[in-house]
Design a protein that fits this description.
Blueprint: H1 21-31, H2 34-41, E1 60-65, H3 80-89, E2 94-96, E3 102-104, E4 107-114, E5 117-122, H4 136-148, E6 163-166, E7 171-175, H5 183-186, E8 212-218, E9 223-228, E10 241-246, H6 250-258, E11 264-266, H7 270-277, E12 282-287, E13 292-297, H8 310-317, H9 322-328, E14 334-336, H10 358-367, E15 373-380, H11 387-399, E16 403-410, H12 416-420, E17 429-434, H13 441-449, H14 453-457, H15 468-478, H16 483-498, E18 503-509, E19 511-516, E20 519-520, E21 536-537
Parallel strand pairs: 1-10, 1-11, 15-16, 15-17
Antiparallel strand pairs: 2-3, 4-5, 5-7, 6-7, 8-9, 9-10, 11-19, 12-19, 13-17, 13-18, 14-18, 20-21
Helix pairs in contact: 1-6, 1-7, 2-6, 8-10, 13-15, 13-16, 15-16
């Protein structure tokens, strides 16, 4: 397979006129068609410098995301860019810092007081934007509701649901049946909302304790306006106002930032990154990431199905010429995985590497008696930069080893969760990203590979991946206080996962964000998020 890929005539990409709208807009963005076309393509308020009161506060920021921010909550979805916005409104007991270690936010203290118990004390000065105090009952309600949502993303990362017991108005304990030594990190993903307003669903609006409040919200269009919380309990945000919108076409996002209509855009393909680097008004912020993207197999296949056989799953991985994909479509800004989680995470173990060998793929498939294999490959639109092109490139690669691939792109805001749970239809391979907001390999391992038969009854496992021996090792690791012993358990678990060949290919992209130079003090963390309260826009 050569390093150059021709686009296939897949119906989901092409318009009735036979011209790829995505390709046209990418081209438009790269050649810079200017403000007029940008205004027509991007429906967002242009950035403005705001009033400055002498303290450095003021200014307005415009952010254009690549995916619709359907919620200001994270119970079901937690893609990287959403975290930045969600945590500007709602906060948790802890947060993960730039060093990927937990730090206190709403909690004054968060201490392990026994093998299975943590004692937490709320800060005395915290309150919501309406000045109402944060209560222990609010924390209890939030914790329960995260576990009540169907297919909860955050809840799946907990080995078990902690039990909250109130001690006084500011103090409570979190108790687990088994030791859970990473609970202070895991609780950084439980965002706190007033108990009476919280629900077992993603919240589209409402108040929080964060440095910004919601002035307007339209989850249907993904358009939000945040304003500085003048009642914030901490240091007030520098920005006065933030406009958030989304544009699924990358070319339109590029036009928005080059024309000055947007200050920040995310999820940039290598081609656009190369072009934007040449623009004197734009900076690229780039660094190693913690997000895993993989072509994950459907582990709900019945016995006797080719994909139920790990040898077949392994064989198909040899059909993917990932080096060519990285050089031709990804411009070298991604790293092929060397294990089952990103190597940037604490506890990562190198378990192997992906290799391209079409002859070996054919030989192994023949040895397993697999012929005329048809695969359905699904993914959600804009799941990762250049997703459609990567998927299209897989079709001829698989054809080279005698496998037919049918591509099915699920629109953003569509039924991807139903597809993942096997409720909307059958599929074979899913192109999916899995973000990490704790910096711990254990978080990914527990959420992706710690499935149980009980969870699978409600389709709450990660695509049917259930191997009791792996889950047992992860459960032991989550309760092991000794770092060396815990890492040994994680090593054993990762080695057992690797031999199951859960993915056809996996990789970790660099975090790449584009901002206009007038945007200062924006510090991108390895988790691909940043604190909006510390961002400043200069004249």
């Amino acid at each position: 397979m050569s390093g150059t890929f021709a686009r296939t005539d897949t119906p989901f990409i092409r318009s009735d006129a036979g011209v790829s709208r995505r390709a046209l807009l990418q081209f438009a963005g790269l050649v810079g068609l200017g403000t007029t076309m940008g205004a027509a393509l991007v429906a967002c308020a242009g950035p403005q410098s705001g009033d400055d009161d002498g303290s450095g506060a003021g200014g307005k920021l415009s952010i254009v995301l690549n995916r619709n921010l359907v919620s200001l909550d994270n119970k079901l979805n937690q893609y990287d860019a959403a975290v930045t916005v969600q945590r500007a409104v709602r906060q948790a007991l802890t947060a993960i810092g730039k060093d990927l270690r937990p730090q206190l936010v709403l909690a004054e203290s968060f201490e392990a007081t026994s093998a299975t118990k943590w004692t937490v004390k709320l800060r005395q000065d915290i309150h919501y934007s309406d000045k109402a105090p944060v209560t222990v009952e609010d924390v209890e309600a939030a914790l329960k509701l995260y576990f009540q949502v169907k297919a909860g993303y955050v809840a799946s990362q907990f080995p078990e649901q902690p039990t909250l017991t109130k001690i006084d108005d500011r103090t409570f304990t979190l108790t687990t049946v088994k030791p859970l030594v990473t609970l202070d990190s895991l609780m950084s993903n439980i965002l706190i909302t007033p108990a009476k307003a919280n629900k077992a669903e993603e919240l589209r609006d409402g108040i929080g304790t964060g440095p910004f409040t919601v002035a307007s919200a339209d989850s249907g269009t993904g358009t939000y306006k945040l304003v500085r919380n003048e009642n914030y309990w901490g240091e007030k945000a520098l920005l006065q106002e933030i406009s958030i919108s989304y544009q699924e076409e990358e070319g339109a996002r590029v036009i928005a930032i080059t024309s000055g209509q947007a200050d920040v855009i995310d999820t940039i393909t290598p081609e656009s990154a190369t072009s934007l680097k040449k623009n004197k008004d734009i900076d690229l912020v780039q660094g190693p990431g913690t997000r895993l993207i993989h072509l994950f197999y459907n582990f709900r296949k019945p016995p006797g199905h080719p994909l139920a056989n790990p040898r077949v799953r392994e064989a198909l991985s040899y059909a993917v010429d990932h080096d060519s994909l990285i050089s031709s479509l990804m411009n070298g800004v991604v790293t092929s995985a060397e294990g089952v989680v990103p190597k940037t995470l604490a506890g990562f173990v190198r378990t192997g590497q992906y290799a391209y060998d079409a002859a070996k793929a054919k030989q192994m498939l023949t040895a397993e008696g697999v012929t005329n294999l048809n695969l359905t490959i699904i993914w959600e639109e804009s799941e990762f930069a250049g997703a459609a092109r990567v998927m299209e490139a897989l079709v001829p690669m698989l054809a080279d080893v005698g496998v037919k691939a049918t591509l099915k792109e699920i629109p953003k805001g569509g039924e991807i969760n139903s597809w993942r749970r096997g409720e909307a239809g059958d599929w074979d391979v899913l192109g999916n990203g899995y973000g990490n907001q704790t910096g711990l390999a254990l978080t990914n391992l527990q959420g992706q590979y710690g499935g149980t038969a009980e969870k699978e009854k409600t389709r709450d496992t990660y695509h049917g991946f259930v191997f009791p021996e792996v889950t047992a090792l992860l459960d032991r690791a989550s309760g092991e206080p000794d770092t060396a012993k815990r890492n040994d358990l994680l090593k054993q678990a990762q080695e057992k996962i690797w031999v199951q060949w859960p993915a056809m290919w996996a990789w970790t992209p660099d975090n790449v964000l584009a901002k206009r130079k007038r945007v200062t003090t924006l510090e991108l963390s390895p988790a691909n998020s940043y604190e909006l309260s510390k961002v400043k826009v200069s004249d």
